[in-house]
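Support case: user asked for a sample of complex input and structure output to validate their parser. Sending the pair below.
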Amino acid sequence: MYVAVKGGERAIDNAHEWLAEERRGDPAVPELSVAQIREQMKLAVNRVMAEGSLYDPDLAALAIKQSRGDLIEAIFLIRAYRTTLPRIGHSEPVDTGAMICDRRVSATFKDAPGGQVLGPTFDYTHRLLDFKLAAEGETPRAQEVEAARKETPRITDFLNRDGLIQKETPSDETPPDMTRAPMEYPANRALRLQALTRGDEGFVLGMAYSTQRGYGRNHPFVGELRIGKVPVEMEIPELGFAVEIGEIDLTECETVNQFAGSKTEPPQFTRGYGLVFGQTERKAISMALVDRSLRWEELGEDNVGAPAQDEEFVLSHSDNIQATGFLEHIKLPHYVDFQSELELVRRMRAEAQASYKDAAE
Amino acid sequence: MAKAEQEKTERQAWMGLLAKSSPARLAALMDTASDMPDFTWLRVPEAGGVMVRGRMGGTGAPFNLGEMTVTRCALRLASGEVGHAYVQGRDKAHAQRAALVDALMQTDRALDLRATVLDPLESEREAQIATRAAKAAATKVDFFTMVRGED
């Protein structure tokens, strides 16, 4: 029997009003502006853009304010907003080789042309709380050194020149789009990369970590990690040529992994690839490891049954909005479902008690 | 043909510059430029998403990375020139200003706008890039050998 009940309306309205008040916190403390979040909580903004799958720092900052800093809730808001946007088109693939790098390091070649540029990194900090930040301080200023505008060539290009690393074959194939068509398995690499770049950072990190601990070992080196700006170019149909429509911050990670070879190709290094919106290097490195791990079949490796080799497992659990939607719905009223289970368990108990009695007699 | 090619690249350059410019800065620069002409809309400003693509390994086959917000519009001046804009973000007034500059750059006011709007935008952008590059350069590692291990 289905019973419709009403009556939560007033409670819901009042709950939302209280939420708004709690969001504001102590009114004696100045209110946060969206611009403050955008500028000073930049890495949170980046995460919301990456997993919300929409590059717009102002919207991401607004979502963080609205969600009281709950980043998955903020990502949810961005995803919902994204679905209301008409799709104008797609860009040309971005040229990360032409990135204006804030940071560029290689763990494989000390003397990489273009150098090891640390950029604004947490690396080598002592992870000690800085109590000076608790006081309102002056504006810090970074050192500047005359920069020679030189190209920063890809590390993998050097390896590629000697055939030491597996080639990436350029193509102009239209990639599948998981925002337009439901996921299908087996997924190709393009679809996997799209799912990973918008996947939950914690989940993708956990999967990547599991490969390092031995669940599908593939021994990665970070061949190169670069963070910086790239222009985005789009073909404008009414003009008949491509123009730059903006510029975005990206983090790119290329891993160099152990070998594959075949009858026609002597052993060579293989690759994993990570590319994520914003300065998001933990995510980009994780993505590269998981990408590499999911390529086991194509590279002729054994499936050792590791979770990070199972694309359906990885891809269907990497999306935190799907996950939280299904997980959190169980807290909503399930009175009728539960009523039926309650009746069932009572009947089972009654039957069990009756059979004990029969046995005793 | 050669002239058409050159115009295309010049136009690509200014459209790209306008797309990447800060809405507040473009608005301020256009305030100082002389009066803006009347126009009719061919396409009213509309915000939407553009799916940004990347390439596997940076150089391989394309994949979808995620969307970015873009606002586009098109307008026609009374004198007939058509201006287009595709600018990053959701600011409709910004798209309108970019389309106006695009249209006016095809008129005899091009030199004036180049000097009052495009050149300042470009030099400010160059300066910003140079400052960031200088900060990055200051974080470049200079390796030196402390002790050699072979004695």
